[in-house]
Amino acid sequence: MKIPLLAFNDKGIYCHQADVYLDPWRPVTNAIITHGHADHSRWGHKNYITHHTNVPIIKHRLGDINVTGKDWNETFTINGVKFSLHPAGHIIGSAQIRVEYKGEVWVFTGDYKTEDDGISVPYEPVKCHTFITENTFGLPAFNWIPQTEVMTDINNWWAENKAEGKTSILFGYTLGKAQRLLKYLDTSNGKIFTHGAVENMTNVLRPMVDFPPTTLITRDTKKEEFPGNIVLAPPSAHGSIWIRKMTPFVTGSASGWMAFRGARRRRAIDKGFVLSDHCDWYGLLDSIKATGAEKIICTHGYSDVFSKYLREIGYDARTEHTQYEGDEGETAETDKAELEQGNEDAA
């Protein structure tokens, strides 16, 4: 029986010929990492390979690791298997992994999105025979509106809150979402305050992107400084003691899940903005078509629904179980750890 070029096992996605794992969730010797979110780049591997812009990100999160950075489209060969990294557009430094052996080509997307957010290198389709795709938002109900419209809504919301003398608290994941929001906040509305977790990660990324100035919230920040301004914080800060001195405040959250009715209410958020770092239904379909792949492997998210639809329209599609968590879980552990540190800084 022929061994597949990439196989799923209890440690991750494994290339037997090269003895390399892609985004493994258990410690392995050799790991190629798509991006810096906690569910895809985990501590404990002996050797890491990733895109060079992701190197400072995973070093910030994982500490002293043995990591090698590669450039876009740079081919590196391991035991006859050719690997290369290609832009995924998910967050800064996010990559797809192309794997080729004896003329057979597979592509693993990691997480990706097709909308150009202006800070990540935009997604590029890569031709292949087998395409491993996430399905975080793999339902027809998910159909994103353009980022420019979402940011206009956010800046108008901030202005309205300012007119009422309230603090705007906007929640977004520490890595990726927070910087995407920061890049397009209208500083004519006021100052941008940051939670320590957001500030620390943003400082790692500032050499790569021109972000607006921010003010770190510390124990010396006075309550009187907040009204009319905006605070960027990780979702895990919601409901914490940390935000009490920002009263009166209004909360907002930027997430793809805000497209679901009731999501804002369930999370006790005042305002929801539909903004995701993943593909919507149509982005997934367009991406698959652009690869020319006949075989599709669907992973985390609505994989069963999405793979069923793909089979109905003629693809050889199946699902595989992974430990990737998608939009909601991808930074939960890291946010929690960084939240504790940020709260200590501001206490």
Automatic annotation (TrEMBL):
Stretch list, region Disordered: 321-347
GO molecular function per UniProt: RNA endonuclease activity
Protein's recorded name: Putative mRNA 3-end processing factor
Naturally occurring in which organism (per UniProt): Flavobacterium noncentrifugens
